[in-house]
Structure prediction request, 447 residues.
Amino acid sequence: MAQDNIVVGVDIGSTKITVVAAQGTSTGSRFDNIEILGFSEVLVPEGAVINGSVENIKQVGSAIREALAEASSRSDLDIGIVNVSFSGTHVRVTPQSDGVIRPTSSTGDEVTQRDVDQLVDDMYRAKTEANYDVLHVLPMEFVVDNSTGVREPVGRTGIKLGGNFLIVSANNQSIQRTRKSLLEADPHLKFDKMIYAPLATSLAVLDEGEIKAGIAMVDIGDHTTDLVIYQDGIIRHIASFPIAGRHITADLRLGCGVQPENAEKLKKEHGVAISSEVPLNIEVLVNFLAGRPPKQVLKKNVALIIEERLKEISAMVYAEILKSGYEEHLIGGIVLTGGTANIPDIELLFEKVTNMPVRVGLPERLAHTAKADAVSNTSFSTAIGLAWAGIKSIDPRVKSICKPPVHQSAPLRETPTKPKELKKVPKEDGSFWDRIIGRKDDSIGDY
Prediction:
């Protein structure tokens, strides 16, 4: 099959590897939709990926190999290059600013795209925590001479060019394990872009109108809940919390006295987010131990347990939105995605807690085919977003928001460069959530 405009996304999640092969379809010079050519979903052994970070290279590599083979078989493609996700509680997002004196021949020369791209490229040498690498540079506003808050600097006249950025960095050992797991899957496999998972997900589930108007995307996965805030088409705030779907399953395991697999089944098959509509007398039979009669569990109790944990997650998200200062600018409200977003009535619960409009986001702009129907759910959102990232830009104002890839032919560990001292935007001590409740639930770990 011809491979023009074909992109393969590999999403490394905490419980599974998801792969999507897609091809852009266009009218004129603009890509309006993507056609799904192949897809796959392969579970990873428990503990192989923890909080989004690869821990067992061999097990994850084996799962990637199986997933790529299945997607290749469905698409009739020889997959050799991919976009891959990274995520986890090790990821850091910090606001920073920097500026340069442009090498102009005379006062009044216009800022060019090359000037902007060079400024962004320089930010990859930003000073970060020890053993951390900068992987994304996300521009917010630019500064041209004395003009601040400039959204589009190209074409402006001035000598000084600066900007305010969100710097996304990640633990380099975790990133190396991700790269090595790809090589474990196939020594000849290369990756084009490595993208922070919630940014990829945004490409799949948000439309341009929402991004322009102001929207908060909330991806509730298995191990983490991620928040990305857009306003005026620009990424303004990113946060992640190590509390998500697995905590609901753990609550059900303890509250209902069943095994983890039974708790997961209760969540997926009988769970709802609003308990008030569930009758008191409906029982669910759980076959939990061989040789023993099924255990009777009240569906009302299942709903109450799920509702309380989702209230906590939604309150954390809302506190972070308030902390960001963009609550009044989010005309589009909240878009929920991720596996936990499949729980019925979850959008109603979030609306009650946040008093904001909420919808559940499924992958958008898919050409109507049988394969598209198979991936039109929240489980494939990130992999589809990774495919979109090879077709459209996350921020069209710059050449790329991604650090140049390290292909298989290059050394896995990059040559270190001297970090660049940058001006850091002041940040308040302590989270908004900590200031609200003044405590945390130690049973669910740090968040």
